UniProtKB/TrEMBL annotation, chain A:
This is IGL c2924_light_IGKV3-20_IGKJ2. SUPFAM superfamilies: Immunoglobulin. Keywords: Adaptive immunity, Immunity, Immunoglobulin, Immunoglobulin domain. GO terms for biological process: adaptive immune response. It holds the Pfam family V-set. Immunoglobulins are composed of two identical heavy chains and two identical light chains; disulfide-linked. SMART domains: IG, IGv. It comes from Homo sapiens. It comes from the Eukaryota. CDD domains: IgV_L_kappa. GO terms for cellular component: extracellular region; immunoglobulin complex; plasma membrane. Residues 1-90 form the Ig-like domain.
Length: 108, 121
């Protein structure tokens, strides 16, 4: 089973700053199998990025994904107040999905 | 509008059973793999199970194998999760999610709002 480890656990930043979230896999992951989600309190997760770097429909271009192999990154170029939430990476392998434990992005 | 609406959650005693339902609308349900994903209180996301378009393939996370059964009724645009031998650690919000219908890409692009399952005596 591939384990995804996200860092940091909590990231404290101010609106307008740049956020860089990391997702590291215990084994190599196909980029096609790597996605990122945003979840706000009391809400369902929302797809942000699929295929490691493709933005989902309606996602602002301040969100970008990159990486390959075992290291993937979600970058938010200029934080807006609505971006403060929990972010999860997800991978698919051996007929199963696994998620990282999440990074909480909080207002500093 | 593409929509998934879960129902069937509630309070159940350890060892009991519950059946969750997910009603799909706004898209061709029979063309998509579907998944259940859960989230324990204050915890992260955990994929539970998924099912192929025609129901011929089903996969489960190890912790629910032999206890949970995923199924679907394409005529009713509905997804189900039969949960037996429930344990306290099954307490969670259960989300129904549509898997992407793009060859060689694996992700979930539509999510329901979830239904809460509480296992407690």
């Amino acid at each position: 089973e591939i384990v995804l480890t996200q860092s940091p656990g909590t990231l404290s930043l101010s609106p307008g700053e740049r956020a860089t979230l990391s997702c590291r896999a215990s084994q190599s992951v196909s980029s096609s199998y790597l996605a990122w989600y945003q979840q706000k309190p009391g809400q369902a997760p929302r797809l942000l990025i699929y295929g490691a770097s493709s933005r989902a429909t309606g996602i602002p271009d301040r969100f970008s994904g990159s990486g390959s192999g075992t290291d993937f990154t979600l970058t938010i170029s200029r934080l807006e107040p609505e971006d403060f939430a929990v972010y999860y990476c997800q991978q698919y392998g051996s007929s199963q999905y696994t998620f990282g434990q999440g990074t909480k992005l909080e207002i500093k | 509008e593409v929509q998934l609406v879960e129902s069937g959650g509630g309070l159940v005693q350890p060892g009991g059973s519950l059946r969750l339902s997910c009603a799909a609308s706004g898209f061709t349900f029979s063309s998509y793999w579907m998944s259940w994903v859960r989230q324990a209180p204050g915890k992260g996301l955990e994929w539970v199970a998924n099912i192929k378009q025609d129901g011929s393939e089903k996969y489960y996370v190890d912790s629910v194998k032999g206890r949970f059964t995923i199924s679907r009724d394409n005529a009713k645009n509905s997804l189900y999760l039969q949960m037996n031998s429930l344990r306290a650690e099954d307490t969670a919000v259960y989300y129904c999610a549509r898997e992407a219908n793009v060859y060689y890409y694996y992700y979930m692009d539509v999510w329901g709002k979830g239904t809460t399952v509480t296992v407690s005596s």
